[in-house]
Amino acid sequence: MRIDPSRGLRAPLAVAAIGLALWPSVFSSAYDLRLFTLAGVYVLLVLGYQFIFGHVGALSLTQGAFFGLGAYASAILAVRGGWSFSETFVLSIAIAVALAALIAIPVLGLESHYFALATLGIAQVLLLVCREWAPLTGGVNGISGVPGIVLFGRAVPGGSPSLILVWSLVVIGAAVAWRIQRGLYGLAFHVVRSAPAAAGTIGLDSGRMRLAAFLLSAAYAGAAGALFVRVNGIVSPDVLEFPVMVTCLAMTVIGGATRVAGAFAGAFLLVYLPEWFRPLDKYYLIAYGAGLLVMIVAAPDGLLGAAARLRQRLMPETDVAPEPERLPRPEVPVTAPLIFRDVVKSFGGVKALQGVSFEVRRGEIVGLIGPNGSGKTTLINIATGLETCDGGAVLYGNQVLTGRAPFAIARLGIARTFQNICLAGELSALDNVAVARSLDPGVDIETARAQAMHLLETLGAANFAMSQVRALPHGVQRRIELARALAVQPQFVLLDEPAAGLSEREQADLAGQIKTLRTRGLAVLLIEHNMPFLAGLADRLICLHEGRVIGQGSPDEVRRNPRVIAAYLGEPPRVPA
Amino acid sequence: MLQVLANGLALAAAYALVALGFVLVANAANAVNFAQGDLVMAGGFVAVALSRLWPVPGIVLLPAVLAVMAVLGLALSAIAYFPLRGRPATAIFVSTIAVGLMLENGANAIFGAEPQAGPPLLPGAAIALGPVSLSRQSIAVIVTAAVLILALEFLFARLRFGWRLRATAQDREMAASIGIDVTWMIAFSFALGAALGGAAGLLLANSFFVTPTDGINYMLKAYIAVVIGGWGSIRGAVAGALLIALFEVVYPSLPLLVPALPVSWLFTETTATIILYGVVLAVLLLRPRGLFGEAVLRRA
Amino acid sequence: MRAVIFCAALAALGMATPLAAAEVSIPVLVPITGFLSLEGTSQRNGAMLAIRNAPAGLNVRADVADTGTAPDVAVNALERALGRDAPTAIVASMLGTQVLAMLPIALEHKVPLLTVSGTASVTEKGNPYVFRFFPGDAITKVAHVRYAAEILKAKRLALIAQTTEYGQSGRAAIEAIAAKLGLEIVYEESVDVQLRDLSPVLGKVRAAKPDVLLLHLHAGPTALAIRQAAAMNLDIPIVAGSALHQPTTAALLEPAELRGVCAETNASPVSGGSPEMERFLQQYREQFKSEPDGYALGQYDGVMMALQAAAQGAATPAALTAALSSGTYRGLAMTYKSDGKGNMAHSAIIVCYDGRSRVPTVAKRYDDIDGVLAR
Questions:
Q1: Most CB atoms within 10 A, among A387, A558, B4, B193?
Q2: Mean pLDDT, to the nearest integer, of B147-174?
Q3: Is C190 on the interface with B (CB under 8 A)?
Q4: What separation in angstroms does the CA of A249 have from each of A43, A295, B89?
Q5: Which structural domains are found in chain C, ordered by start?
Q6: For chain B, what are the domain ranges?
Q7: What span, in angstroms and rounded, lies between the C-alpha atoms of B3 and B207?
Q8: Cβ within 8 Å, pair C73-A274
Q9: pLDDT-derived band of residue B275, with 50, 70 and 90 as boundaries?
Q10: Which CATH superfamily is domain A338-567 in?
Q11: Which residues from B are below 8 Å from C192, CB to CB?
């Protein structure tokens, strides 16, 4: 597959860009120039929205509000305060970002349906305030007579000069957006969006990324609003109403929520279509809703996504896998063990863990066994920061891990895999692993990919590097998850049922790879039900039952432990001699 | 005072139906149906259209409205939910927003943009109760809504079909594993949700008229009611709706009841709305589980 | 002999005037979609009917374009019309924010805008190219309050206004006029357009014991207020704003609910009253299959005034602007003349409903309220 599906569109996009640049020379009446300028304003708005909606995948409904806020800020400062264009432009962006920062902290952590409502509520409040606070905002009639743009003391009249100014800003905004989503940061957004549970465990600070995306989207919206009001000369409360938000959403979805070119496509389409379909009037609006629906169902990555897929289908090309590159030697490892001390956890009334204590030392492979519901996965979740514990602690050296965010724990050298595979399905195997290299600050995307290649090779998955993960068989996906876990260069690897669903051959391979880790000095804690697999592999077994450790020791000792036998309903585990 | 309370209760009854319809779908499909408000509006217009064909009291039209809206709900699930199973939640938000747009603009194209009056539930003027005359419509709305809610209770508590719906809402995988046809249960939940919303539309269309742009307003009310009441809780949805309606009606009347309060801008409808949103935001931040809901997981 | 010379002179005159018909283009840019589509459609219908009845010797082109609800869409429509045609005049949307957005462009291109907007500020921007054929608050609210005072003998007034610009400008006018006439406003409140349940407000009105309740609301809220007032047996005479006179608003209410309710407006074509009005009514019903309201009639009069001026030679934008600024025109609703700022309408009427039908009768005319016509 193509690592970068848009690469196939380079030629058509280049042609489109040239066409776009020539358009205003061909269609140059005042009306056409105005439409083109307006389209540019919307491109900026959509580029911003792509950060929070496309990349992070959060349905924020404040984008229209930030747009309106930027417009009002510019209008009020220009008309009532006499401020210049450059001053109001910068301030509009600043005010929008300030509001975003204010609401981000409480709101960004909410689940999707709460987040949507909270942002919608904030947008509605802003609308009401603008309608009511007439002395400041001009009430329902808004503020008219907003002067055009004046730069460096010279007026920039409507028509071509305004167009050029607006579009220069659009090009800058698009370039910035493109840079951001190209590199490792862009791949990281994929993980935050598609495999959020895994994001923290590979060192990605999803909270900070979401905040950055939200602030960026507000900044772009504020800029767009500031330009909008200059182009129209008037601001009124309908710029803050829900239909504007829906337009932004529709442009983003229809164009393609994660592609910069998609912002252009969506904005142009939805600015020009209503003008072209004027004769249809009310029926156009129904078609607009139907179009949005068809898009989200049939082409969720928008027109650009569909175009990329079409191109790939018509003229398939595959990227060549990069040359592998060894990872740099990690720093002198801490030799302390990972200590679980009296860990207690309840879910509602259910006591999942009731004081679990044990250690995992470097250079060991420890198996964690126990009947279903004994708390094994919970223990790993607590160790990697995905759950908090109600009592006790997990320690690593002199660091207390419990209470830290997952990304902080990952950066300390603890990595994990998941019971239900948690990979970003739409990315290639290579990119899934490469993202995990981003926690090393010196690494750029090419290096990360090369290093990921090396990791995949060591795990025997090199042939699958360029394939999309969601198309790969289960066993291969497990290997890729393991490679990703190794990419953070951990000292401790916590594996949650890594052998589940693997064939005998694959299990033997996996066992071999885990032993290699031990040889390299890593420690492995592995949850498994598969006794034959564990028997030849683990140095020690720890058996959990109903949240308590009921036996630990060598595999032989543990399988003879009567309490362990009883926990497994009287059946001694079948272990080959 | 009694009239104010009666109006508040009537409004609460209608909002409760809307919120119930919303929470049923939220539970069964784990999806936010952004078109719920527009379904209320559609129900109102269906009532208007039917009453033009048969000029009978609204209560007679109620079964027809319920039936039409149920079909509309099934259609909604077919085009906006089922094709998007397995996709992230935002996809269903967007698809239901799109359907809402189509409903709104369809109503606009067919009926025009101006408000229309729906048929009264019962013909006849106000009922006198001592010195106060209560509008017959308010009482009829309260009674009708109460009957519908009780019918829903009965469905869930006593009828097998209702048990299956509840099981699907609680745990889809488990329900599937014991042989319940989850797909149909979800579709019926949509149908039920739309029918309840449409009934609310009929109830509201006479006293408050129906306009194609009403959708977002009802949607917000339903959303707020469910958040305050507790996401996923049926009792919570009704409680939340009650609180919203009473607040909307009683708060601006406070100066009437407490003469000491100044009749100032503080007690206007607009201020009431702003305060309502403030309360919602506070609930979201401080006690996201609302009144009756389960604990809410925050992101890692 | 004199007759022959007279006829020859006439014939010579006839040959001297241009044989070709004057070309006039009047794009109609009004809201056909969105919440103002009813009023916008009235504007369009009134304009098209006027064009159909255009005086002989005129060739009128009228392209209709939708301005939706947002100001920038209106500006798009205007730029498009200016680019395609060479319009002589423009029928402009009555939505205040849209007119305000169009004003600078009309000024730049020197093309007159003919509108029926009720928003006060459109004629207060010093723009000589806007002509409003609908009486502003300064006119209608005088009729509104004077009717309450003189005919209904009210001393104590209650007022419910909309929080919108329309509502607030009307409210300010009512307060000023009431003060001048020595009336006391014992209760007033402004409500949001979205508000459905007005009973709390009506309860407060009742508690204040006014003689008359004045409403200055948009169509839906007006009907709601009247319905809810009837439901709670408010028993206070109501005089509503012009929104009530629209047949679609009255259609929302039962005739019984309208008993004793009056409304101010510029004109109520459905009430008939003169042969010309009846003819207008008949033509409108035939062509558009609906009932005309005051906006349709106001727009009709406005476009007719422009067409008459064009027929008499003012067929360029500049000439037409001059003609509209200085001329007097006797239209169907009233006589129009500019007050120097573009306000053309200076009369208003009060219509009342008898409780038996939804068609009101004209109860009182107030002509030339601000004395402009007499100048």
A1: B193
A2: 84
A3: yes
A4: 12, 12, 15
A5: 23-135+273-344 (3.40.50.2300), 137-265+349-366 (3.40.50.2300)
A6: 2-211
A7: 14
A8: yes
A9: confident
A10: P-loop containing nucleotide triphosphate hydrolases (3.40.50.300)
A11: 269-270, 273
| Lookup: tokens for C210 | 């006014």
pLDDT at position C131, please? 96
Q: What is the spatial distance between Cα B247 and Cα B214, in angstroms, rounded to a whole number? A: 20
Pairing of strands C328-330, C262-265: unpaired
Assess contact for C93 and C74: CB atoms under 8 A: yes
CA C59: distance to chain centroid?
26
Taking a C-beta distance cutoff of 8 angstroms, is the pair A423, A481 a contact?
Answer: yes
Least confident of A129-133, A453-457, A504-508, C334-338: A129-133
CB proximity C40 to A under 8 Å: no
B137 or C267: which carries more pLDDT confidence? Answer: C267
Alpha carbon of B193: minimum distance to chain A alpha carbons (Å) = 18
Above 90 in pLDDT, residue C43?
A: yes
pLDDT of residue C262: 96
B267 DSSP assignment: G
Q: How confident is the model at residue A274 (pLDDT cuts 50, 70, 90)?
A: confident
* Three-class secondary structure of residue C265 per DSSP: strand
Would you state the structure tokens that stand for residue C334, as one six-digit string? Answer: 């009233």
Query: What is the rounded distance in angstroms from the CA atom of residue A482 to the CA atom of residue B8?
Result: 60
Integer Cα distance of A61 and A217 in angstroms:
11
Angstrom distance (rounded) from CA B222 to CA B21: 9
Give the chain A residue nearest B90 (alpha carbons): A59
Per-residue model confidence (pLDDT) at position A2: 62
Asked if A141 and C165 come within 8 Å (Cβ–Cβ), the reply is yes
- Alpha helix positions (H), A30-159: 30-49, 63-75, 85-107, 112-132, 134-137
Of B189, B147, B148, B145, which is closest to residue B166 (Cα–Cα)? B189
Give the Cα separation of B295 and A197 in Å (integer): 19
pLDDT of residue C17: 46
CA distance, residue C279 to nearest chain A CA (Å)? 31
Could you tell me the pTM of the whole model? Answer: 0.87
Nearest by CB to C165, which of A139, A232, A234?
A139
Nearest to A175 by CA among A244, A260, A290, A103: A260
pLDDT band at A220 (very low <50, low <70, confident <90, very high): very high
Q: Is A288 on the interface with B (CB under 8 A)?
A: yes
Q: Do B3 and C36 touch (CB under 8 A)?
A: no
The Cα–Cα gap between C272 and C291 comes to 12
The domain locations on chain A are 29-240, 338-567
Q: What is the pLDDT of residue B173?
A: 81
**In the predicted model, is pLDDT for residue B258 greater than 80?**
no
pLDDT tens-place string over residues B112-135: 888 898 888 887 766 665 555 567
A140-187: per-residue pLDDT in tens? 788 988 888 888 777 888 788 889 999 999 999 999 999 888 888 888
With 60 as the cut, is the pLDDT of residue B300 above it?
no
CB C324 within 8 A of CB C338: yes
Q: Is the Cβ of A157 closer than 8 Å to some Cβ of chain B?
A: no
Residue where the block lists tokens 């269309």: B205
Nearest to A42 by CA among A22, A67, A62, A19: A67
Cα–Cα–Cα angle for B76, B82, B83, nearest 5°? 105
Average pLDDT over every residue of B284-299:
65
Closest CA to C301 of C89, C56, C100, C53: C53
What secondary structure letter does DSSP report for A3? Answer: S
Give the residue from A207, A268, A235, A211 showing the smallest Cα distance to A46. A268
Residue A125, token pair as written in the block: 């409040």
- Rounded Cα distance, B169 and B175, in Å: 9
Q: What does the DSSP assignment read for B98-129?
A: HHHHHHHHHHHHHH-SS-BPPPPSS-S-PEEE
- How far is Cα of residue C31 from the mean position of the Cα atoms in its chain? 15
